[in-house]
C-alpha cells in the first residue's frame, strides 16, 4: 500500500517531534525580521541605496508567500520526514550562502533559497500538530505555535540590533546556521511520517499561476507603501497578480486534485475565523510597522527604544499563547476571540491621540496590552477554523490560513502606510512632527475600524467546544 510508511499516530512520542518542528519554524520566522536593524550596516558594507537594501527583507517575504500556497500539494506528495528534512536543509543552505556572501547578488540568492525552505515550515508544522494531537488538545498545541509566531519576529530586530553593534552583519547568519544544521541532524533521527500521501497530479499551470498571482499581489502591495500607488510597476504587478490569481482560483475548482483547495471556504466558520485572523495580523503589523516610524522619525526616540518597546508585548503574547490554548481546549474560541478583539479595538483607539511628547511608557504599556489581546485571537481563531475541516482538508486549510496571513500583512502594511502619508498635514522638508503624526493617528483610526469589524464577525462564531466540533465533522464525513 502507498501509505504504509505512515506512523501510527497514537503510539508516537510527540515531544521530540514538537521540539524539532518548533525549532525549525522559529528559525524560519526569525529570519523575516532578523535583518531589519542590520540594513544600514549592509548598505555601508555593500555600498547600496536604501531602496536596494530593503530587498533583503522584501524578497524573503515575497518568496515565502509564493511557497506557502503550494505547501498543501507538497504535503500530499512527499512523506512528512522527507519534506521537513528537505525544507530545513534548503533553509540551512540559504543561510550558508548569506553568511559567506561577498556581494549583494549572492546575498539575495541566499535569501531566496532561505525563504524557499522557510515558506514550507509553518503550514507543515500546523498540519502535523493538528494530526498528532487529539482535538481536545489542539488548542494547547497550537498555542505553542502562537508562541513562535509572536516571539520570533519581535526577537529578530533586538538580536540583530545588538549583534551588528559588536560584530559584522554576517554574524547574524553564522548564529542561525549551526542551529539549523543541528535541527536537520536531530530531525533525521526522530522525525516520523505523519501525513497521508494522496499523490495529486502535478499541475504545472496552477503552480505558475499561483506564483504569479500571489507573488504579483505581495510585491505590488509591499512596493506600494514605498513607491506609491501610481507607480507603473506597482500597478502592473497588482494587475498581473489579480488576473493570475483569479484564473488560478477558477482552475482549482475544475481540477479533481487541486493544488490549493478553495472549497474550504464553503465552511462558514472557517471563512469567518480566517478573516478574523487576517484582521488580527493587520493589527499586529500596523503597530509593529507604524510605531517605530513614529517613534524614530517623529518623536525623537532611538532605534533601540523602538525595539525595546516591542519586546514586553512580544513576551506577553508568547507567554499567553499556550495559556489561551488551554482555555480554548475547555471552552472553545468564541469568548476568547471576542474579548481579544475588544482589547485590540480599544488599544487601536488609544493610539489615535499620539503626540511628539507621548511617553515611552504609554506606548509600551498600550502595545503590551494590545499583544495580550492579539494572543487571544490569533491561534484560537485559526484552530477553531481548522477544527471545522476533515483530516483530508487540513493541509489545504493550513496552507490557506498562512497564505491569507501573508497577504494580510502586505495589504495591511501598504494600506496603513499609504493612509499615514496621505493624511499627514504636511510631508515636505519643513513638516513639523505634529503635522506628520496626524497621519499616524488617522492610520490607527482605520485600524480601530478594522478591529471593530472583526469584533462583529466574532459574534458569529459558534460557542461550541473543540470536541463538539470534531464530533460534528466526523458525523458529516460519515
TrEMBL record:
InterPro entries: EmrB-like, MFS, MFS_dom, MFS_trans_sf. Residues 17-466 form the Major facilitator superfamily (MFS) profile domain. It comes from the Bacteria. It holds the Pfam family MFS_1. The keyword Membrane applies. CDD domains: MFS_LmrB_MDR_like. Keywords: Cell membrane, Membrane, Transmembrane, Transmembrane helix, Transport. Its main location: membrane. The chain crosses the membrane at residues 12-35, 55-75, 82-106, 112-133, 145-163, 169-190, 202-222, 228-250, 270-295, 301-323, 335-354, 360-386, 407-425, 437-461. It is a multi-pass membrane protein. It is found in: Cell membrane. NCBIfam families: efflux_EmrB (TIGR00711). This is DHA2 family efflux MFS transporter permease subunit. It comes from Virgibacillus halodenitrificans.
Amino acid at each position: 500500500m502507498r501509505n504504509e510508511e505512515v506512523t501510527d499516530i497514537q503510539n508516537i512520542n510527540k515531544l521530540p517531534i514538537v521540539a524539532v518542528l518548533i525549532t525549525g519554524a522559529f528559525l524560519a520566522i526569525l529570519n523575516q525580521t532578523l535583518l531589519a536593524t542590520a540594513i544600514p550596516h549592509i548598505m555601508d558594507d555593500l555600498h547600496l541605496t536604501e531602496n536596494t537594501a530593503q530587498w533583503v527583507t522584501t524578497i524573503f517575504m515575497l518568496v515565502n508567500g509564493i511557497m506557502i500556497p503550494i505547501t498543501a500539494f507538497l504535503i500530499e506528495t512527499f512523506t512528512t520526514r522527507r519534506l521537513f528534512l528537505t525544507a530545513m536543509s534548503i533553509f540551512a543552505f540559504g543561510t550558508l550562502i548569506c553568511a559567506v556572501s561577498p556581494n549583494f547578488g549572492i546575498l539575495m540568492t541566499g535569501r531566496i533559497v532561505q525563504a524557499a525552505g522557510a515558506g514550507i515550515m509553518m503550514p507543515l508544522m500546523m498540519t502535523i500538530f493538528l494530526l498528532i494531537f487529539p482535538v481536545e488538545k489542539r488548542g494547547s498545541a497550537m498555542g505553542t505555535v502562537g508562541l513562535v509566531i509572536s516571539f520570533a519576529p519581535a526577537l529578530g530586530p533586538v538580536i540583530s540590533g545588538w549583534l551588528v553593534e559588536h560584530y559584522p552583519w554576517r554574524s547574524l547568519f553564522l548564529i542561525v546556521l549551526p542551529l539549523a544544521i543541528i535541527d536537520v541532524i536531530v530531525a533525521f533521527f526522530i522525525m516520523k511520517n505523519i501525513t497521508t500521501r494522496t499523490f495529486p497530479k502535478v499541475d504545472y499551470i496552477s503552480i505558475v499561476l499561483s506564483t504569479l498571482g500571489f507573488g504579483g499581489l505581495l510585491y505590488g502591495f509591499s512596493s506600494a507603501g514605498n513607491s506609491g500607488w501610481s507607480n507603473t510597476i506597482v500597478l502592473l504587478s497588482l494587475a498581473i497578480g489579480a488576473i493570475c490569481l483569479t484564473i488560478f482560483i477558477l482552475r482549482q475548482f475544475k481540477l479533481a486534485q487541486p493544488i490549493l483547495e478553495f472549497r474550504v471556504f464553503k465552511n462558514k466558520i472557517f471563512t469567518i475565523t480566517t478573516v478574523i485572523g487576517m484582521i488580527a495580523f493587520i493589527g499586529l503589523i500596523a503597530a509593529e510597522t507604524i510605531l517605530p516610524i513614529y517613534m524614530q522619525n517623529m518623536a525623537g526616540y532611538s532605534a533601540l527604544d523602538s525595539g525595546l518597546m516591542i519586546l514586553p508585548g512580544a513576551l506577553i503574547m508568547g507567554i499567553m499563547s499556550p495559556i489561551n490554548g488551554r482555555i480554548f481546549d475547555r471552552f472553545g474560541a468564541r469568548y476568547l476571540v471576542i474579548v481579544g478583539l475588544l482589547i485590540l479595538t480599544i488599544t487601536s483607539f488609544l493610539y489615535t491621540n499620539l503626540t511628539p511628547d507621548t511617553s515611552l511608557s504609554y506606548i509600551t504599556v498600550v502595545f503590551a496590552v494590545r499583544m495580550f489581546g492579539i494572543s487571544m485571537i490569533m491561534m484560537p481563531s485559526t484552530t477553531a477554523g481548522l477544527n471545522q475541516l476533515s483530516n483530508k482538508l487540513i493541509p489545504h486549510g493550513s496552507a490557506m490560513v498562512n497564505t491569507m496571513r501573508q497577504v494580510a500583512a502586505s495589504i495591511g502594511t501598504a494600506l496603513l502606510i499609504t493612509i499615514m502619508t496621505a493624511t499627514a498635514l504636511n510631508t515636505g522638508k519643513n513638516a513639523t512632527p505634529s503635522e506628520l503624526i496626524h497621519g499616524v493617528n488617522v492610520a490607527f483610526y482605520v485600524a480601530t475600524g478594522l478591529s471593530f469589524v472583526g469584533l462583529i464577525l466574532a459574534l458569529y462564531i459558534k460557542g461550541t467546544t473543540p470536541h463538539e466540533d470534531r464530533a460534528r465533522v466526523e458525523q458529516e464525513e460519515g
